[in-house]
Amino acid sequence: MILAAQSHPVTYGALALLAVSTVVLLSSDMPLYAGDPLHGLPHDQSLLGVAGTTSEPLSPGFTQTLNLELTNPHDFAVSVDTLAVTLIEVDAPNATPQRGCSLADFAAVQVAQSLALTVPPQTTATLLTLGIPWEFLPQLAMLNPNVNQDGCKGATVTLQYEAMGAQP
To answer: Where are the domains of the chain?
Structure first.
């Protein structure tokens, strides 16, 4: 198993997104660990990077597409067969007891098809350029319940991206 973790904040309008990328790649060879702080290996040995955010601000009742970017810094191809987006936490500095903001205000919509992606050596490519149609890309939604969501203005949502696959 090869683990890699990355994080970077991105702010768009009223809502900031912090993406924490975690990539888990399974190999038929002996387990390897790269970019895994638990095993003391440096981040620059990561097998695959995953990054991305929405291109527009979120607002209640709307969904934004995540055309994630996969980076393969190595001299060998990496195949990816599973990709997941998980909501980790919400930091909402404007939330009050009367106007809250929590993970319950958001939803992650997963890739709508099984994956069979190959990221070529030394390449950075988006899911679109790797052949996933726009309508099947993962999405981040801000739900629109029948309550005031002003507490979510200026909130930061932390996402985790997780990919599974192998070196072909």
So the answer is: 2-166
